[in-house]
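Shift notes (night). Ran Flavin monoamine oxidase family protein while the centrifuge was going.
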Amino acid sequence: MNPDIIVVGAGLAGLTAARRLTQAGRRVRVLEARERVGGRTQTLNLPQTGLSVDVGGQWVGPNQPHVMALIHELGLEVYPTHDEGQNIALLGGKTLHYRGLIPPLSPLVLADYALLSHKFEALVRSIPLEAPWTAPDAAELDAQTFDTWIGKHARRPQTRALMRLYAGAVFSADPAEMSMLHALTYTAHGGGINGHTLTRGHALQDRVLGGAGGISQRLADDLEDVQLNSPVIRVEQDGQGVTLHTPDGTHRAAHVVFAVPPTLLSGLPFHPPLPARRAQLQQRLPMGAVIKFMAVYERPFWREAGLSGMAISDVGPVTVTFDNSPPQGSPGVLLGFIEGHAARDLMDVGEDQRWEAALGSLARLFGDEALTPIETVQRDWTAEPFSGGCYGALFGPGVWTGYGEALRTPVGRIHWAGAETARVWMNYMDGAVESGERVAAELLG
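Came back to this:
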């Protein structure tokens, strides 16, 4: 018997949509191209230590109601990110220790940053979350890059460095790769800069006990029809339904939900062709570039020096680090991100060369003890064919104002979900869950 609805993509968005539709009595089939569920989340058990680590998305916070409600619904638990101790900032050749958000820079730099962030946050508050193309001065904001705006409004090199570090940490991209309207929209989805970058009370507060991959696994375990290794290679739509072709056969349903990054659909044949605006949108949404790595140590030695494990650096390739140790505190784990141009520089080299560069960065921040981990793991998300990169899609100049209206608009019996389509917390796990719930309500309504 054919299902009522097919969901393409077994990440958080697709599985959430399938769960809500199934709960409402619909017959749902999920098709996933990978050999696993989880999409841009994945939990691995390391072979030497047996430690469970997230090589994909991992953080949730109390200001993210959709994913937190789903975690509790599934009977999972969270625990706090370690943030006790002093943070490190390596900026302009100087190493600074500090607590809070902003390093102890000179009064002139702090004043410049305060003025710049005030201007930025004022613009953030003007952005309609669901329709940023309707914002005041949307065309002007969308015609320039985030980097252009930073260069125009930041007077001090350290201020520009801080804002560019924010772009790398939050977008996994350089500010020159996105429009100013996109930077504002994305920031607005999290309630401002602090919502994206702080721990307690914000997006980085908690991690899922056992790993964030457990969310998708529990969602999939509760569904009856999840088919892995089933990439869709052709889509045909008529007045009665949609037929999906895979290498192993065809699947038909009255409606289909695509819950995958839009760029992955740009080469997929649709018959009849998608409307021009939707097709053009998919061609204009490249993914961010990030390599996530972790170094495991017998103990979190940085805590003994009064350090939190959190660091920012304008010397690459690692620009952001966190203490990613398990809740019991041992073994110690340092997590580092290589993002944007730094990730592209290391795309084509071997893992050993990446590790040499990454561990060198850790040693600059935490000392030579960082050079001798007992175990390591890395994930280059730019090399993932069914993700295309991480954390999410980048809207370059002109995309929001020219094509944004097509982002969530159904095309006949074809509907769109995924973290890129979220109305809050775009490209976060919370946004993925919200998009799945939205598309389920859309179909049920």
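The chain has three domains: 5-40+212-274+411-444, 78-83+201-208+288-383, 108-196. Residues 370 and 383 are 27 Å apart (CA to CA).
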